[in-house]
Amino acid sequence: MEYILSFDVAKGKSVYCFLDSNKNILIDPTSINHLKDTKLFKIINSIPGFGEFSTALFLAEVGDITRFNERKQFISFIGIDSVTSQSGVSAYHGSIFKTGNKFARTILFNIITTILQISARSNQTNPIYLFFRKK
After folding, report:
1. Per the CB 3.0–4.6 Å rule, which of 3, 45, 80, 102 could disulfide with 55?
2. DSSP string, 18-48
3. What are the pLDDT digits (tens) for 97-129?
4. Which of 33, 29, 28, 30 is nearest to 17 (CA)?
5. What are 57-86's pLDDT values in tens digits?
């Protein structure tokens, strides 16, 4: 295994990432254990669809979320804010910008996809599932 990165995600807490021979990203399990004690890890891990691995991966990519003063800054950082075009009195709200952090956006996409697949089979009252069914 080849060591590739370490990310500081909280004060004194880091995540260490490795690449295996198949170029898969692996996270050091002791990194996850150290993060489990942090308030931020507990909050994100409590969101349905976020497991310990995805929470650690998300925090490793995004870093300390508390550095954002407003949610708009965080949404823009990830790149999931919508394109808005205005002309006179009309406004068009289109698809997402895709200019932010591509890897964090991919992590969120994979989590949402998993939530939708599981909810379609077992929990069709999940608010996220119901939201996407309306679209």
Report:
1. 45
2. EE-TT--EEE-HHHHHHHTTSHHHHHHHTST
3. 677 788 888 888 888 888 888 888 888 888 888
4. 28
5. 888 778 778 889 999 899 888 888 877 777
